[in-house]
Structures are given as C-alpha cells and as structure tokens.
Write a structure and sequence with these properties.
Elements (H helix, E strand, L loop, with lengths): L2 H23 L3 H9 L5 H7 L1 H13 L4 H27 L3 H21 L10 H19 L6 H7 L4 H25 L5 H9 L1 H15 L4 H24 L1
Helix pairs in contact: 1-2, 1-11, 2-12, 4-9, 4-11, 5-7, 5-9, 6-12, 8-9
Amino acid sequence: MDLATHVWLLAGLTFAVAGLVKGVIGMGLPTIAMGLLSLVLPPAQAASLLVVPSLVTNVWQLFAGPNPAALVRRLWSMMAGVVAGTLAASGILAGNRAGLAVLALGVALMLYAVVGLAGVRLAVARRHEVWLAPLTGLATGLVTGATGVFVLPAVPYLQAIGLAKEELVQALGLSFTVSTLALAAGLVHREAFASEAAMLSLLALAPALGGMWLGQILRGRIGAAAFRRVFFAGLFLLGMYLVLREIA
C-alpha cells in the first residue's frame, strides 16, 4: 500500500475511535483526531481533516437540547474571544513552524489529561462571567489556532459556571462548533485548507458518526468514570510521546 492508502485507513480508524469516545463522554473528537493524525501528518493537514466531522457532530450536539438561543446570549463574548484568538494564532498551525505546533499539541494534551484525571471542578460566580468569559474564549482560541485542540480552557470554564447537565452538553457543542468554524476560516485564510483535505474530511464524517452512534450505545453499558480514566491516561501518554519526539 502507498502512503495515501495508509492515510485513508488511519483517518477512518481515527475518526471511528474519536466518534466512539465522543458518544460515550460527550467530547474528545478533535482532541483524539489531532493527537493520532499528527503522528503521521503535519498539524495543518490533520486539522483540515477534522473540520467536517467536528462541525457536524457538534452542531447536532448544540441543537439536541432545549434552548440554544439562551446559551448563545450568555456565552457570546466567550465565542467572540474564541474567534479572535483562533484567527490570531492560526499562523502557527498553518505556517512553517510545524515542530512548534506539534510540541504545543503534546503539551495541551498532557495538560488536558492532568485536569481530567485530577477531577478538578472550579466554580465561577455569575457576576465574574462578564470579564472571565471573553478572556477564556481568547485563551481557548489561541490554543486552538496553535494546536487544533479546542478543549482548554473552555471545558473547565463551562463546567464551572453552574450549567445544568443538558445545558453543559449544549454549551460544549456551541464552543466546539465556533472553534471548528474559526479554525477552518484561519486555515483558509492561511491557504492551508486544500481541496483534497476538504474531500477527505467529508469522507471522515461516516466513521465519526458510526463511532458516535456506537459510543452512545456503550454509554449505558460501561462505567463512565472508568472510561474517562483510561481516556485521559491515554491522552497523557500520547501527548508525552509527541513532546518527546519533538525535543529528542
């Protein structure tokens, strides 16, 4: 098999696994996709492949709940920060500093895993959201633009503002949707979103949705806490491998 065939097979397997994890715990698709695909592809190409599967699954997650408009009104300043930060930092991911992007991705994965394994739960008073939301969005956008990973510090912040379970799932869908669109815009602006990548990204949607469907079935059959521990431990090891590979 040639390299192109290997990439096709890896992309299909990666998005099936990433969709499975998202179906079980509600997030993780871009994190896993970027981590695994960056083992064999430049970060900008890996980010291009996740655009369609990430967008579709997160739009679905956003509109599956009761009142997305209320969430948009509450979180609009955070989303504005996400867009600004992603566009500002997308040059790192799309430029000639691929090694720096891979290193940053590895560090981001390790930090995310440590936060998840530690079970950190923060609390943010409603009165502080007016200034903390845009700062969180900007920081998330900078991480997204540099690494293609959407989770930090957006996920801990959204967990800290007192949303109900279904609202939190929707809020994650909103944040990841905006991050995906901003990342795609940044890659297009930097001329790093090739037509071939767009086609492969569209084809990656099928295994992602299949994995997500299977994950939703498995959610009720396995312990979510045990699965999360294995998931975060695996992310930490993957991030460590990427960091060591770049500094060796």
